[in-house]
From TrEMBL:
It comes from the Eukaryota. TPR repeats lie at residues 156-189. This is Tetratricopeptide repeat domain 9B. Keywords: Repeat, TPR repeat.
Length: 215
């Protein structure tokens, strides 16, 4: 389809067990000594925030599986709140840097992946929850999908859901663009039937708008 997106390997964070096992402190290589009270305290606070975010995310997943969508939304928001002061530096997305004191610069690559993948999973899961609502807030769905795509440009579900959101918001040209990109990623996936219907409808609306403009 003429689009070459970056392949981001976002791991499932199985290196961070729900109970026991290797902690984030171990991942950071910190043992609580040698760094001074101020820096060591900041690093411990940052570590605790990342771990809490992961825990809230997992609770959100559990609520989603139990179809407790409102509770799941709350858990995902709490996870993101834990990460509010930790923005991973990414040269490709221009993410801002706002890390806890000076400890952010000492994030290990493993911790950076933990922060980024937790954000992606939370925003992706939030859109899934919102789409289960009787009255879907498509503006919010669009916002969260674009956040996911800001991290991972080739994320199929975010492309597909962004296309649906733009369609329902009346921006048919953007809807077509995202739906076409999604089709390039997964041309015969489980969403294909619905994709064909929405894509056809969006194409008709764009054609109608163009004919009205020129007439």
């Amino acid at each position: 389809c003429g689009m070459e997106a970056k392949q981001h390997s976002i791991k499932s964070l199985k290196s961070y067990p729900e109970a026991g096992g290797r902690s984030l402190a171990a991942a950071a290589g910190g043992d609580g000594g040698g760094g001074g009270y101020r820096v060591g305290g900041a690093e411990m606070e940052m570590e605790a925030k990342i771990q809490k975010a992961i825990d809230f995310k997992l609770e959100g997943h559990r609520c989603y599986k139990e179809k407790k969508f409102r509770e799941a939304i709350g858990k995902y928001h709490r996870a993101l709140l834990q990460l509010k002061g930790i923005h991973v530096v990414d040269g490709t997305t221009g993410s801002e840097v706002n890390l806890l004191n000076e400890a952010a610069a000492k994030l290990t690559e493993e911790q950076r992946r933990a922060v980024e993948s937790t954000e992606i999973e939370c925003y992706d899961s939030l859109t899934a929850c919102l789409l289960q609502s009787e009255l879907v807030n498509y503006e919010r769905v669009k916002e969260y999908c674009l956040k996911v795509l800001g991290h991972q440009q080739d994320h199929f579900k975010a492309m597909y859901r962004a296309g649906i959101a733009f369609y329902h918001l009346g921006d048919y040209e953007c809807a077509l663009r995202y739906l076409r990109d999604a089709k390039c990623r997964e041309p015969t996936g489980g969403h294909y039937d619905r994709f064909v219907i929405i894509h056809r409808s969006a194409s008709q609306m764009v054609s109608l708008s163009c004919s009205r403009f020129y007439n």
